[in-house]
Every structure is written in structure tokens, then in C-alpha cells.
Specification:
By secondary structure, this protein is α+β, with helices and mostly antiparallel strands. It has helices spanning 21-35, 43-50, 54-66, 83-91, 94-112, 156-159, 164-171, 183-196, 210-217, 223-230, 284-304, and strands at residues 41-42, 70-72, 77-80, 115-122, 125-132, 147-149, 199-202, 241-242, 252-263, 269-276, 279-283. Strands 4, 5, 6, 7, 8, 9, 10 and 11 form an 8-stranded antiparallel sheet that branches. Helix 5 (94-112) runs antiparallel to helix 11. The radius of gyration is 26 Å and the shape is elongated.
Length: 308
């Protein structure tokens, strides 16, 4: 039975909101201290700012100080404590962060009607964390938690907005297939993406494209078979990346994906958001519109993570 229905009355009641005034006071104190992170507040200042009596305020501050959520110095002033760093780090990891940015992913999918993919890098692996929509290139419908090695030619979009030394470390890894492009060429692709705010991947028949290689590596086939098949792939040259759009807005280009970064509060590329039009004859005007939609969603997600 739905608990919202009152027993024996035949009427419907709205859910009762139960709040805890003591808990609310704890939250108010922490928020007050967070609003003035560079200043220390006395007991009197905290109590007056929140309209609390001093004994109640002192009891809360003492409990928080015992747990290191606030610190009290020799001058008997209070500030945020080191235990909050652990909570903040936990909130920035795993599902806590994903739930913050998934609304931006959903809004982008609803706005464009196109597939959207969210990926990240973790311990030398590229991991697909979430996706919305169907009809992804390569007919791979279920990408969630798919993993591939972070090694050339895979992962360029996942490290393009990282520090230069991170990019160099990626390029120095043993490639998954032979490379037919120089480091300078890859740098030019990255520089172009950083300038525009996004990287465009074209639809291509090149069997060594990121999509084909990633599909092979995540196929579930025995490693020895994958290794044999990789030997038959042609060298990778990152030719699927479009470094310049035609000047004519009515010109058409075969667009596979538009990739843009999501940054955390430290300015690190935490996630990569990929909008997947998978359109063989997109106009330049459409491409620019889709890119702006993807970047807008990424900016919203970045803001949700405390970045800018």
C-alpha cells in the first residue's frame, strides 16, 4: 500500500516532511564558516550571525571540533577543520561526482536527440562511465563501463586538455598499433582542440580508427587473438580528427563525434563529454551548433564540480 494514503479514511495525504532543527543548526554553522574560509569567527560572532544562544552554539562547535570538522585556536576562534577535506575528496569521487554531472548529459541528449557518451581516465584505462542514446558508431549499443588501454592512438580526446607532461607521457606509451604520425602532428591536433574548445572526429573507413581499435580491444575475445588482429591493422595517423571546418556554412562534413572536456575544481580534465551525431552529411552550420551545445553542457558539468 502506498504510505501516502491514510488508513481507513479513503483520502490522500501529502508526505510529511520531517526536519531536524538540531541538524539544521549544525549545517548553518558549517555553511557560515564555509562562507568566510579566510576568517576565524568567535563564539559570539557565530551565535549572533545565526540567532542561536551561546550555550547551544558552544555545544555544537565543541562536538564539531572533537571530530575535526572545525578547529578552535588559542584565541578561541573557529574555522573549518581538516576532516572536511576527507569528505570533500569523497564527494568528488565515484558516483557522487557522476550524479552531479549526469543532468547536463541528459539535457544535452534531450536537446539534440543524439547519443552522448561520458568517459574518464583511471589507472591507465579509458573508462566509459555513462551514455545516453543508441546508434553509436560501430553498432556498439551498450558502452557503460567499457574499458580500453590509455595508449596511442586511443585516448587523445581524454588527455588533450591535460598538462603538456601528461600528453607527453601518453604519447611515450607503447602504441597499440604502429603510428604513422609524429608527435608534432598530434600536438597540432591538440592545440587546435584547445583553441576551439572541442575536437571533431570524422566518420572514416579507416580500419585503424579509434572506433575500430576500441571495438576490437573491448570485444571480449582472447588476448592472443586480439594481438594477432592488431598486427593486421594499418598504422594510425589520427586522420579522423578534423582540424579545420570549411568556411562555407552549407558545406557538408562526415561527423562521427564532437568531444569536449569537463574540468574539476583544480582545472584538471576530469571527464570527456562526447556528442555523437554519427552523421555522414552534416553541414558546417550544424556542426558548429552541435559543438556549442556540447560545450555548453560541459561548462554546466564543470560548474557542478566546482570548476570554471
Amino acid at each position: 500500500m502506498d504510505p501516502r494514503h491514510a488508513v481507513g479514511t479513503g483520502t490522500t495525504r501529502t508526505p510529511i516532511e520531517r526536519k531536524s532543527p538540531p541538524t539544521e543548526r549544525v549545517v548553518q554553522i558549517l555553511e557560515l564558516l564555509a562562507d568566510t574560509p579566510d576568517d576565524r569567527l568567535t563564539l559570539t560572532q557565530v551565535a549572533e550571525a545565526l540567532g542561536l544562544n551561546k550555550p547551544t552554539c558552544l555545544g555544537i562547535l565543541t562536538t564539531l571540533a572533537d571530530a575535526n570538522f572545525v578547529i578552535r585556536d588559542g584565541a578561541k576562534t573557529y574555522g573549518l577543520g581538516p576532516a572536511l577535506l576527507r569528505l570533500g575528496a569523497a564527494a568528488e569521487s565515484g558516483l557522487a561526482k557522476l550524479e552531479l554531472i549526469r543532468p547536463a548529459l541528459a539535457e544535452l541528449h534531450d536537446r539534440t536527440g543524439m547519443s552522448c557518451v561520458l568517459s574518464t581516465v583511471h589507472r591507465g584505462q579509458i573508462i566509459v562511465l555513462d551514455h545516453l542514446g543508441i546508434g553509436l558508431a560501430g553498432d556498439r549499443q551498450d558502452l557503460a563501463m567499457e574499458r580500453c588501454p590509455l595508449a596511442p592512438p586511443l585516448g587523445l580526446v581524454n588527455i588533450a586538455w591535460e598538462r603538456d607532461d601528461v600528453v607527453d607521457a601518453w604519447f611515450d606509451r607503447t602504441p597499440l598499433v604502429p603510428l604513422a604520425a609524429s608527435r608534432d602532428h598530434v600536438r597540432s591536433i591538440i592545440d587546435n582542440g584547445r583553441e576551439r574548445g572541442y575536437l571533431i572526429q570524422q566518420l572514416t573507413t579507416n580500419t585503424s580508427s579509434n572506433i575500430a581499435l576500441a571495438a576490437l580491444l573491448s570485444s571480449g575475445m582472447p588476448t592472443r587473438i586480439i594481438d594477432v588482429l592488431r598486427q593486421h591493422l594499418p598504422p594510425a595517423d589520427w586522420s579522423e580528427f578534423l582540424t579545420a571546418l570549411p568556411g562555407d556554412d552549407s558545406a557538408t562534413v562526415p561527423i562521427a563525434a564532437i568531444n569536449t572536456p569537463i574540468f574539476d575544481r583544480r582545472g584538471v580534465q576530469q571527464y570527456t563529454l562526447s556528442l555523437v551525431p554519427n552523421c555522414p552529411d552534416a553541414t558546417v552550420a550544424q556542426c558548429r551548433e552541435w559543438a556549442e551545445a556540447a560545450m555548453s553542457a560541459a561548462r554546466t558539468a564543470t560548474g557542478a564540480l566546482g570548476g570554471h
